[in-house]
Amino acid sequence: MTSTILFLTLLALLVLLIVAYRGDFAEPSILFVVGFTLAVFNGLTNYRTWDFDLSMQTCFVVGFGTFAFALTAYGVFPQLRRTSDSTSGIR
Predict the structure, then answer these.
(1) How many CA atoms does the CB half-sphere of 52 hold within 13 Å?
(2) Digit-coded pLDDT (tens) for 45-70
(3) Separation of alpha carbons 14 and 31, rounded Å
(4) Burial class (CB in 10 A: 0-12, 13-18, 19+), 18
(5) CB atoms < 10 A from the CB of 53, how many?
(6) Which DSSP helix (H) or strand (E) runs through 57?
(7) What does each C-alpha distance from 39 to 52, 73, 81 come to in angstroms?
């Protein structure tokens, strides 16, 4: 059950990031969350074979870690782009 909640949380975060970045899939936070979302989805599709069930602590660590990474990347990368755009022009 906790794996399903983690999957839905990661999926919601992924949709939120896609909307925030206007559909640009090449953003680091989107790629980071896609990896975890696919891994949890793979675990859910094979949960009977693998006896797959994540503990609440694991779900919290993955959920909080991906959210923190996405929030940090959303705040940092636009500033890096503005800095590189202003310094890369030909004068």
Answers:
(1) 16
(2) 998 898 888 899 999 999 999 999 99
(3) 9
(4) middle
(5) 13
(6) helix 56-87
(7) 12, 21, 30
Answer yes or no: are the C-beta atoms of 6 and 63 closer than 8 Å.
Answer: yes
- 59: which 2 tokens? 């779900």
Report the distance separating Cα 28 and Cα 25, nearest Å: 8
Considering the entire predicted model, what is its pTM?
0.79
Token digits for 75?
A: 């705040």
Distance CA 1, CA 62 (A): 15
Q: Taking CA 55 as the corner, what is the angle to CA 50 and CA 61, rounded to the nearest 5 degrees? A: 115
In the numeric block, which tokens belong to residue 64?
A: 């909080």
89, pLDDT greater than 60: no
